[in-house]
Amino acid sequence: RVLRWSLPAHSTLFSKDMPQLDMRTVCVKLVPIATLFSIALAFGNRAYIHCSVAFIQMVKASHSVLTYTLNAVVGAEVFLGSKLRLVCMVWFGVFLAVTGEVDFVPAGFLCQCLSSLAECTRLVLIGLLLNRSGLKLDPLTALSYYAPLCFMLLLPSAILTEFPSDTSAWIENFEA
Question: What is the pLDDT averaged over residues 37-50?
């Protein structure tokens, strides 16, 4: 809403009529998407601590396989064997990249797998909960709704993991 307020009135970034959402719609449709987005961000960032950027990008290439499989499982997309073969070829390439990693760290790989699963599930849920239910939100409007929810979900974890244990030394370094 801050971005909407700060933009000129004639800006076309957001849809003209921003839908009013009741608490039930927010809890049922937006909170699951924000939760999955938060999980994807948290575990994806944690994976960068353990794994190389190139390795993580190779694992991210498997998103098409996960997204197609999840869409077929929930019935959002018709299952086609020919499509499955194509996306499995992508998965095979990812598998080769994973097995060829010199500095393989299982914890980093697990973090990236959880991040990928959460991200692909989020994409499927966006299709099911927002688009199919008649709640037509353009991407920026949807983001303006679930980004604050993500912030609230990630803030406790960020405080626990990122806040320095010696705050007095941190404040002294910050003021210098």
Answer: 94
Dist CA 31 CA 82 (whole Å): 35
Tell me how far CA of residue 10 lies from CA of 2, 7, 136, 140, in angstroms: 16, 8, 21, 16
pLDDT tens digit sequence for 128-154: 887 777 777 777 878 888 889 999 999
- For every residue of the chain, DSSP letters joined together read -HHHHHS-TT--SS-SSPPP--HHHIIIIIHHHHHHHHHHHHHHHHHHHHS-HHHHHHHHTTHHHHHHHHHHHHTSS---HHHHHHHHHHHHHHHHHHHT-TT--HHHHHHHHHHHHHHHHHHHHIIIIIITTT----HHHHHHHHHHHHHHHHHHHHHHHHS-S-HHHHHHHHH-
Contact 98, 109 (CB under 8 A): yes
Token couple for 50: 């353990």
The residue type of 61 is A
Give the pair of three-digit tokens for residue 117.
Answer: 């699963």
